Amino acid sequence: MAQQPAVQFNNISKYYLLGSRRAHMRYLLPEFLQGKRLAPSMVADERITNDHNILWALRNVSFDVRRGEVMGLIGPNGAGKTTALSLLAGIISPSDGEITVRGRIGALIKLGAGFHPDLTGRENVYLNGSILGLPKTKIDRLYDDIVQFAELEDFMETPVKRYSSGMYVRLGFSVAVHTDPEVLLVDEVLSVGDVSFQSRCLNKIGEIREAGTTVVFVSHNMHHVSSFCDRVAYMKQGAIQLIGTPGEALAAYTNDMMQQQDNQHIEDGSNMNEVNGSGRMIMTDISFLNEHGQSVDQIRYNEPLTVRVAYKTNEPVENPLLDLVIRDTTRGNMFQATNRDFAVEFGPIGRTGYIDITFERMPVNNQVLNFFFTLWNSTHTERFDWKRFIKLRVVGKPTSSGRFLFDCDWRNVPETEAVNV
């Protein structure tokens, strides 16, 4: 007989009413105290047909998580990832569908969730343990390990309302992983901790994964998702787009994000028919060429690239300067130089021609690059023309979250072979 999944999310929908007075205690309580009879529609959601008043956090979402599996949930903000975890934890209820979780749950979803701010750290440990169904004798045995992992030995008699966000996370995570959960739910809240604590958390997740605990893991860190997850669900706008291996899901997510960046509406100065300067020398076309000389709008990381600028002059021009700036989508400069920075002088310029800028390779990872070009006279005092926001997509490795991918060799060197410097 096949083993039942640890988690079953069956056709789940969750919506919130926008601008509705119904079920708000501030409106219901005065009417109740005045002896007014509350209509059922005031205290319970009825079938809603006007989507203008609804925010669908999740809509018809289904997935299973096998016992001992680490399932990742990825997607942009507002995709429904945290809503899914909150539903699994029982913090909120679905509007439709059925959720089944087999096993005791440990959850780290919201900062300070499950803590009473007026209770001390010690009291909250026992409160959380009892909520999870652990007897006091077992919490007594686990207490020292929980405190030691959280590194809060000096603060356990302090009310948690005086804790910093990092202290909240340390204690919350420590309680969640030390109370022997059979299903662990972890949200991006781990990003609040410092680097050292994040590393210990990830190591701990690895340990409980090896012990057979089921984990549902939400993160924007693609490296963590790739390293820890067996399968990944890519979510967008409250729906599942794809469930597959980490590589498959991350590739789909990255491609969508790049496409979104590519389609963003920005002020564009790339109209080749428009002159933005004195016009003595103008750019008539800009293209990107791959290693075969073909015009492209996308390359892969570490592939060679030639940027070709077609020009036309209306009168003789001597030693012009071409200023090239490459920026990412946040408008941060990634490269800026003129031909003179590379000890190149163009000399007298003919009526028409091309300026080629060749990069042996582009070690850029999953970026939409914006190219900016400005033509100047030789003394950098007269601007002939400029063109802005010429876009090129560079597709990298979906499992890497860095902006650059540099060539490097990785090898193990036994001490006996190491060369002393």
Description:
The protein is α/β, with parallel strands linked by helices. The chain folds into two domains: 7-261, Rossmann fold, CATH 3.40.50.300; 281-395, Coagulation Factor XIII, Chain A, domain 1. It is 24% helix and 31% strand. The protein contains nine helices and 20 strands. The strands form five sheets. The protein has a six-stranded mixed β-sheet, with helices on both faces. The protein has a five-stranded mixed β-sheet with strand order 12-20-19-15-16. Strand 15 and strand 16 (333-338) form a beta hairpin. Helix 4 crosses helix 5 and helix 5 (136-150) crosses helix 6 (165-178). The longest helix has 18 residues, at 246-263. The protein starts with 6 loop residues before the first strand and ends in a 26-residue tail after the last strand. Mean pLDDT is 83; it is low at 39-49 and 265-269.
